[in-house]
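Weekly structure sync - notes
Attendees: PM, LS, DV (DV joined late)
Agenda: review two folding runs queued last week.

Item 1: First target. Sequence and structure tokens pasted below for the record.
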Amino acid sequence: MTTGRSRLAPGERVLPTDRLRADRQLPVIRTLCAADQPLTAAALHQLTGAPATRCGLVPAFLITTGLVAKAPSQTGYLPTEKGRDIGRAWAEGEPAGLKALREAWKDQWFARTMLRLLGEGPRSREHLVGELSKTSRAPEGRTGQVHVLVDLLVAIGMLLPEGDGMLSCRQGTHGPASVLAHDQPPAGGEVSSGREAGPKSEANGQPTAVPGSARDDLTGQEGLASGVPTTARVPEPRRRQTLQTGDGPAPDLDLLALLLPPVLLADLARLSGEDLMTLHGHLRGLAEITTKLRGRPVA
């Protein structure tokens, strides 16, 4: 077993540690940004309650995003001017702190990648994780850290869950997507990744469920801890969302509006057994008719 911090390959970007869930990293970030003296892993444990061996891995990502720096004594971490601004905003309240953190991170590589991908509409979490993995050049073994990054962005409100497994970008916090070129990782150099040998990852390489809508007052929502829910729920069916169209004809009067949206698992979960059998019969009949029209026998 190796000891100490693992090293990144040349060009690979630093990602948040996956040894601590995103909702538990937020108090560590807040504490570091509000610090007026160097904080060690032991001090962070005392102030946040997170295990010292895990909360001590959080600063690596914050260093690369310009929020904290190593203390001159090389013992502990201190906030940068940008980090102190976030700490002062957080002292005014959770919404102000999260907003300041979004502003501080809006020009980071992951925010540019997110905007480029989501500029034209919501995308699936899996697709976003895949793109962030490519941009960060994260190997398969670090996919769990990419999921934690997405969880962090949801927790602070940069990413908004759409309720059907899709994620969208918060409006008004970024510039036009057209001016952002494909973000390329930096070349050369090995940087500490914030991961080290130790207890098994809390994230276990799996995403934390984050349904519902993120708002500035994330901590006020029932079942949320710093914006990341503690329990999962079946997402709303897309059909119900489609009905909320505002102006214009109702989807029930438009055949294309009924046929074009994909049927989601969340939609099927709300059907009775009789409805499912009826749907199966209709789909089978449609397949038979379509096959006859194309001149092929039904298998």
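Item 2: Second target, run right after the first with the same settings.
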Amino acid sequence: MSSSIVLSVVICSYNRANYIRKALESIKNQSYDYNAYELIVVNNNSTDNTEEICADFESKKGNLQYVYAVEKKQGLSCARNKGIQLAGGKYISFIDDDAIAKENYVEQIIWAFETYTNFEALGGKVLPIYPNNTEPLWMSKYLNGLVAKVDMGDAVSQFTNKYPVGCNMAFHKKIFDEIGMFNEELTFRNDDKYIFLQIKKAGKKILYIPTIVVHHNIDAERIQYKNLIKLCYAIGYSERVRLQHHSFIEKMIKGIEYTIKFFASYLLAIPFLLNKQSEKGRFLITVRKYILVSYIKPDLYKGVWWNS
């Protein structure tokens, strides 16, 4: 690869053959000079035709600098770490295999890092693309995390209580030498939360850049009720895994936080009920309930995930 690479864009993929071609094309069709960035695809043991799609893309990529690799160890964090190891850029960004980057995505990431030099990591907007372009009736701002939606407005700001999501996040590569890599015990959820908490723990700052935009495809299956409940179980379980090496007090504090959020969801649901949006209120309570339950009883997660 060229020594002039500034940014390595990493796409980790598992069975997203329906979407990955558009993700790849969105990086190929960037407004920036091909000499300055590369695309790295890490196939995490896909069983569909992801490999064939990537091979076809490689044959048509033109001058785009492109790396394709397979990570045999299953788990998103494992695939992310493989991408970091392969990256030749000064900066590393991640988008999902079902996402589409805006045409100035690469340009804006490089601009942001070279303009705001005291920030080690950043994220931008993630805007969902729903089936038939119709937002689900149950959706509210309190549940943005279920579809990885991020929109903090149109002004540059700092992430403080929140953090970017894995669908649109970028880092100075050197930060991983200081804080370590992604936690490979987190195979599906909370890998992004883990790494950003490590960054904050190291005293580093995280920037929000609204002009770094990724559109995120949300397929119909993902927003089916049973799959959303499975996702809630995954969130609670993954948080328990993230904290498994922490103190009992820290685990208890998280449990109290989830309990407060569950009871608070009843209060938050009241305006929805009054405005004849009962679906939003009921589902908010349901989500908080199942996240709490799977955090308290993590063994329930595997039964729900594999048997439903």
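Discussion on item 2: Residues 119 and 205 are 5 Å apart (CA to CA).
Action: LS to circulate a short write-up before next sync.
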